[in-house]
Amino acid sequence: MRIASFADHPLGPTEKISCANKMFYLNQYHLVDLYVVLPVIYSVICAVGLTGNTAVIYVILKAPKMKTVTNMFILNLAIADDLFTLVLPISIAEHLLHYWPFGEVLCKIILSIDHYNIFSSIYFLTVMSVDRYLVVVSTVRSKRMPYRTYRAAKIVSLCVWLLVILIVVPFTVFAEVYISPDDERKSCVLSFPSPEGSWFKATRIYTLILGFAIPVSTICILYTMMLYKLRNMRLNTNAKALDKAKKKVTVMVFIVLAVCLFCWTPFHLSTIVALTTDLKSTPLVIGISYFITSLSYANSCLNPFLYAFLDDSFRKAFKKMLECRTA
């Protein structure tokens, strides 16, 4: 339902469009193959995402040794991704049916969750980056962090959930079922007051600033400062480098962040292009729009594999859980 776009047409980067509009563009530009390919791609993302994120949630909740501050943030990130992949089948159904059959209440819920996914991943990664920075600073200064507790991580996570809910409220308010006057086809869309074009541009800027510019700038500043402090620590002091465990966690957070930016940066860059250029809706542009959207969806299923490859404790805990289940 979320479609990235370089061009100024209904396939906007932050507003939702109807399946009727999707099929109009597919038929107009002879991209009917996408009608088959997209549900397959979305189904794979849904299956892999649900399986992987549910496994992450299960391991962190059940394994006592996994209850750390970083894992609390990973848990909430997995819950957010799981919630999104859980409702993805509804988007697949809408795509295949060519109309919205689920009513207005579910329309508001689905659009809210879809937009929630845009903000939640980057905000939890921002919090994880802040946490990594504080850990590095405390290690460089050889100081303890009594306030960095599992309980404090729970409170911070709750605040992130509430903040993102607040950010998504405007999309929830404007979400509604639209009935086409031509064929009475129902669509789940964002319906803005007049002038609609200005409102659509406002939502693009709103999402770009709050969902990308501010959190990514914060993360870049934090990691730049973190690398600077680590460099000075090696050059100017006799202090030991970060211990092996802390370095591994920091590397894992950095790689998860890099993958997130890889998946989401094209989506947000399409907003900049849409706001600053007047590209026409060609088959190539439409195809790229769907590719970018699929890439942003894919981020919801990649993180569990990163944890499995990068975190020994996660692998061991998951293996132990499997052994207990099969015993």
Automatic annotation (TrEMBL):
Q: Keywords assigned by UniProt?
A: Cell membrane, Disulfide bond, G-protein coupled receptor, Glycoprotein, Membrane, Receptor, Transducer, Transmembrane, Transmembrane helix
Membrane-related topology note: Multi-pass membrane protein
Query: Major place of localization?
Result: membrane
Subcellular locations according to the entry: Cell membrane
Q: Which GO terms describe its cellular component?
A: neuron projection; plasma membrane
Q: Does the keyword DNA damage apply?
A: no
Q: What family classification does the UniProt entry report for this protein?
A: Belongs to the G-protein coupled receptor 1 family.
Known PANTHER family for this protein?
NEUROPEPTIDES B_W RECEPTOR TYPE 2 (PTHR24229:SF18), NEUROPEPTIDES RECEPTOR (PTHR24229)
Which protein is depicted? Answer: Neuropeptides B and W receptor 2
